[in-house]
Amino acid sequence: MGCSRELISLVSQISCLTVTRLHDDPASTRSNEAAGLMKQLSFLRQDLPIGLEHSEIMVKIAELKRLTAMLYLHDRVVVTQPGNSLVFAQNLRNTIIKAIEQLPVGIGALLWLLFVLGTSNLSSHKQAQFALNRLHQLEKSRYLGSFYHARRRVERSIHRRILLHGGGLQGIPEEDTTLSDNERWVSVA
After folding, report:
1. pLDDT at 122
2. Which own/partner contact pairs does 180-189 have at CB distance under 8 Å and 24+ positions apart?
3. Are residues 67 and 115 in the same domain?
4. What is the pTM of this model?
5. How far apart are CA 152 and CA 182, in angstroms?
6. What residues of the chain score a pLDDT lower than 50?
7. Are residues 93 and 121 in the same domain?
8. What is the pLDDT of residue 173?
9. What is the pLDDT at residue 184?
10. What would the pLDDT profile of 32-66 be if each residue is shown by its tens digit?
11. Do 95 and 28 reside in the same domain of the chain?
12. One domain, residues 63 and 121
């Protein structure tokens, strides 16, 4: 999987928190839960069993997934950070992109990272193009439906934001009603 079970549990908690965001859960409760999750992610250590092949790449992927989980939490629940929250998220995106650039193109474990990155509030066309190019390269490396649908969903998200903001990439929540079932339920595991 390229990450610890603890990280999977934290990502699951983030997903549950995003659902409660849509209901009448008090904002202060969500904010406290989100801050607690961010703290756990900040201090999470993911150790690999000794003797694994390609352990250097696995360590990099595990760290990238931790950083991506922080971005996912920030973008989906809007966690307030000390200082400027937008700068925090932008630094996360830049760090994730730089790290992905150092990894081989056809690693399937990058799908979730690229999906979260591509659907986040990207601030530049260069970042958006990077996410789309890597998803396209991943899709070309293995013709799997999940790669195709993830790429299409990211394309749709980026194009929608560009159209709504006259060429800019400001964040706009995606409307689920305009998605097909294959696009709505993308498997990025």
Report:
1. 81
2. 182/145, 182/149, 183/149, 183/152, 183/153, 183/156, 186/115, 186/146, 186/149, 186/150, 186/153, 187/146, 187/149, 188/111, 188/112, 188/115, 188/146, 188/150, 189/1, 189/112
3. no
4. 0.82
5. 10
6. 172-173, 176-177
7. no
8. 46
9. 57
10. 888 899 999 999 998 777 766 667 888 899 999 99
11. yes
12. no
**Same structural domain for residues 144 and 95?**
no
For residue 20, give the amino acid letter: T
* 100 contacts: CB under 8 Å, gap ≥ 6: 64, 110, 113, 114, 117, 130, 134
Look at residues 60, 87, 103 and tell me which one is the last residue of a structural domain: 103
- Count of H helices and E strands in the chain? 8, 0
Angle between helices 111-119 and 125-141 (to 10 degrees): 150
Residue reference for tokens 């966690």: 79
Query: Could you say which of 103, 135, 163 is where a domain stops?
Result: 103
Structure letter (DSSP) for residue 50: T
For 40, what's the count of Cα atoms within 13 Å in the CB-facing half-sphere?
A: 16
pLDDT, tens digit (0-9, with 9 covering 90-100), for 170-188: 554 455 445 565 555 555 5
Whether the CB-CB separation of 44 and 66 falls below 8 Å is answered with yes
State the Cα–Cα distance between residues 133 and 127, nearest whole angstrom. 10
Give the pLDDT score at 82. Answer: 57
Q: Note whether 169 and 162 are within 8 A (CB).
A: yes
**Which structural domain, as residue segments, surrounds residue 89?**
1-103
